[in-house]
Amino acid sequence: DAKTTQPPSMDCAEGRAANLPCNHSTISGNEYVYWYRQIHSQGPQYIIHGLKNNETNEMASLIITEDRKSSTLILPHATLRDTAVYYCIVRDTDKLIFGTGTRLQVFP
Amino acid sequence: KAGVTQTPRYLIKTRGQQVTLSCSPISGHRSVSWYQQTPGQGLQFLFEYFSETQRNKGNFPGRFSGRQFSNSRSEMNVSTLELGDSALYLCASSLGRGYTDTQYFGPGTRLTVL
């Protein structure tokens, strides 16, 4: 079973920041938080991952709380192309266990 | 670098037939994982291959099998197809050193069983 809880859907205005929350209250010390997104039945696209420090790359920022029980994925300037299902995954094995994700709708 | 490629992209089969799907990983990647995505069950892990050996297996019946070749390319086979096997089959590749290695997904093969 997935170890994460995400809201089923969120809306965001184009050009604004999209903040996607994820709860992982049972995370253990060696488990990483990974984020993927899937645009309309394409293959999931890797976004970012982290262990305990905040991370940033060209796509997004990942903020992990100090107790590591939750995290937030931030898309700083959402565009219509960011409309997708976003999956937060807690990982300590070679396999990815996907939950149901958050469907982010970016509107003009 | 070229991404993960999967062939064919679309496939239509009838019940009872068998099917073989192919996955070519990113150059230098030695691990290939397979996933099934259906509307009802979401994305589920099938199995993972590393250096031609199955390293992990999900909870799927024995009709689902796979293999990996010495060049890291992988195939999965589904025998005696059932209607419920209609799904998007995804493969992902990684360096294979462990769970901190990022998996990169291909575009998937859409299988329809009639």
How many strands in all of chain A? 9
What multimeric state do the chains show? heterodimer
Shape summary of chain B: globular
Series of H and E elements of chain A = EEEEEEEEE
Q: Uncertain regions of chain A: pLDDT < 50 for 5+ in a row? A: none
List the secondary-structure elements of chain B in sequence, H or E.
EEEEEEEEEEE
Chain pair sharing the greatest interface = A-B, 21 and 28 residues
Structural class of chain B: mainly beta
Rg from alpha-carbon coordinates of chain B? 13 Å
- Per DSSP, the total helix count of chain B is 0
Outline the biggest β-sheet of chain A: 5 strands, mixed
Index terms:
heterodimer, A: about 110 residues, mainly beta, 5-stranded mixed beta sheet, 4-stranded antiparallel beta sheet, globular, B: about 110 residues, 7-stranded mixed beta sheet, 11 strands, about 55% strand
What does this structure look like?
The complex is a heterodimer of chains A (108) and B (114). The model of chain A has no long low-confidence stretch (mean pLDDT 94). The N and C termini of chain A lie far apart (36 Å). In chain A, 0% of the residues lie in helices and 46% in strands. In chain A, a hairpin with a 5-residue loop joins strand 6 and strand 7. In chain A, the strands form 2 sheets. In chain A, strands 1-9-8-3-4 form a 5-stranded mixed β-sheet, with no helix packed on it. In chain A, strands 2-7-6-5 form a 4-stranded antiparallel β-sheet, with no helix packed on it. Chain A is an all-beta fold. Chain A is globular, with a radius of gyration of 13 Å. Chain A contains no helices and 9 strands. By secondary structure, chain B is an all-beta fold. Chain B has no helices and 11 strands. In chain B, the strands form 2 sheets. In chain B, strands 2, 4, 5, 6, 9, 10 and 11 form a 7-stranded mixed β-sheet that branches. The model of chain B has no long low-confidence stretch (mean pLDDT 95). Chains A and B meet through strand 3 and strand 4 of A and strand 4, strand 5, strand 9 and strand 10 of B.
